[in-house]
Amino acid sequence: MILDLHTHSDASEDSRAPVETYMKWLVRKRDVLPIDGIVLTEHRQWDPQADYRQLEDKYGLLILRGAEVETDYGHVLVYGVNDDITSHFDFTNVRLSAQELIPAVARMGGVAVPCHPGRPTIGLCEHYEHKPPIEDVVAVEALNGGSRRGENERVQHLIERYGYHAVGGSDSHLVSFIGICATEFDDDIRSVEDLVHSLQRGRYRPLDFRDRLKKDA
Amino acid sequence: MPTRFEDVDVGHDLQTLSLTLSGEQVKSYAIAARMPGGRFMSDEEARKEGLPGQIVPGNMSLALFSRVIAESFPGATLKKLSATFRGLVHPARPFVVHGVVTEKHRTDHGDLVECDLVLESTEGDRWVTGTATVQFPPRG
Amino acid sequence: MALDFDRSIIGSEFDRTVFAPVTKEAVVEYASTSGEPARNDATAPPTFVLRLRGHRWMPENMPKNLGRAGFDAGKDIDFGVPVRIGDVLTAVSTVHDIYEKTGRTGSMAFVVLRTVVTNQRDEHVAIIDQKMMFR
């Protein structure tokens, strides 16, 4: 099962990609991007009413939802968002405490994954140089489709030193970047609960489709 | 280049611009665009503002996006243009402007084509990303 | 602490400027330096609207705690009728939104300024949303 774990629709203020256009693109590009679904991880927000089941049925792709929040250790993807989590943490706050957030999300039934760890200022690697490591981190985003040269490579050291599992995601803000990086799961995933459970188990790996797309161009 | 809506396909690559702007070109644009900030005029003026060197105005990147659209779809009309400036663009460094058609639809407002646009270094660092909506002339 | 400011500034008009008629010289200069073509000799290239500079580019009562004015972070432009040589354009600017986020260069405040441009026939020429980054 291959999912793009890090995507932004036009609900995020810096994205211009409608969800349905993502779906059409993935169906069209199926031969080079064998993506089974995406997780929408909008910036600093959570809309409990958003519902994409009609689009899932129409395009035969899974659409799950999470969020990308901002902490004192950089940005973090939160999967398994529920009322407990949103009542404890204000997602619009750009100074959340990662030492509080990540263990608390785990206790409340979700999983929080630091994203683009190799990026300056908003990635974990830089913060680990002068702050203690965060408790209860199970995985980090080792492959981010929006990162610059060298940023993904910096994460390997983190993974080896702390034993973190590795995920991949496109960090797409434009339609044509959906699915360029993704995560391959050994488990079958049909729901957010399945996703959280799988992320905790660790049986997955990041995938990079960028070379495939260049050859297809 | 397609001039008819029917001839445009989703996934169609737009015309590519490969450019290296000189400092003089950037300065000339900034003056024509009534943007006389020191950062656009010279390396020395830009460093006074705490920048590593002269930078290309974001508006000039938008003009380059518009140019790619015009060259890709002669006769069509640009209806919307967006850009997010993700990194500084400097003169004397080669870059590429390219894009792709992501959607096409017939609406009450005409035949529209949606495009993604990217301005990136030759090493693939994306400095500016954006989108465009282009309207094709009515049939007949 | 979250960004704290008087939210009544959002939606407030801070500039209204009527410009001198668009000249052929200005259009030719803009087109030649940008490389952006116009549809014909009587009109300006689309991004010519970005050349309009009102009397004030920022409200007088901007919150002081946003930081130093920094960079243009992006724009969204909705185009109406093209700008024609001889047009007398009016630009009305308001504060559309203010929010905070963190990025590669640290914590930043973003101010979205909306400028609505019309011509002498009161036709819609452009709506320009400009994101200014402060830190």
What key attributes describe this structure?
heterotrimer; A: about 220 residues; alpha/beta; TIM Barrel; seven-stranded mixed beta sheet; two-stranded parallel sheet; B: about 140 residues; alpha+beta; Thiol Ester Dehydrase, Chain A; five-stranded antiparallel beta sheet; about 20% helix; about 35% strand
Could you please describe the fold and organization of this structure?
The complex is a heterotrimer of chains A (217), B (140) and C (135). Chain A has eight helices and nine strands. Chain A has 217 residues and is of the alpha/beta class. In chain B, strand 3 (95-107) and strand 4 form a beta hairpin. A five-stranded antiparallel sheet of chain B has the order 1-3-4-5-2, covered by helices on one side. In chain B, 22% of the residues lie in helices and 34% in strands. Chain B has 140 residues and is of the alpha+beta class. The model of chain B has no long low-confidence stretch (mean pLDDT 95). Chain B is elongated. Chain C has a single domain, classed as Hotdog Thioesterase (Thiol Ester Dehydrase, Chain A). Helix content of chain C is 8%, strand content 41%. Chain C is built from one helix and five strands. Chain C has a five-stranded antiparallel sheet with strand order 1-3-4-5-2, with no helix packed on it. The model of chain C has no long low-confidence stretch (mean pLDDT 91). At the B-C interface, helix 1, helix 3 and strand 2 of B face helix 1 and strand 2 of C.
Give the topology, please.
The complex is a heterotrimer of chains A (217), B (140) and C (135).
Chain A: E1 2-7, H1 19-28, E2 37-43, H2 53-59, E3 62-71, E4 74-79, H3 83-88, H4 98-107, E5 111-114, H5 124-128, E6 139-144, H6 155-162, E7 165-169, E8 181-185, H7 192-201, E9 204-208, H8 210-216
Parallel strand pairs in A: 1-2, 2-3, 6-7
Antiparallel strand pairs in A: 1-8, 3-4, 4-5, 8-9
Chain B: E1 17-19, H1 23-32, H2 43-48, H3 58-72, E2 77-85, E3 95-107, E4 110-121, E5 126-136
Chain C: E1 13-18, H1 24-34, E2 69-79, E3 90-103, E4 106-118, E5 124-134
Antiparallel strand pairs in C: 1-3, 2-5, 3-4, 4-5
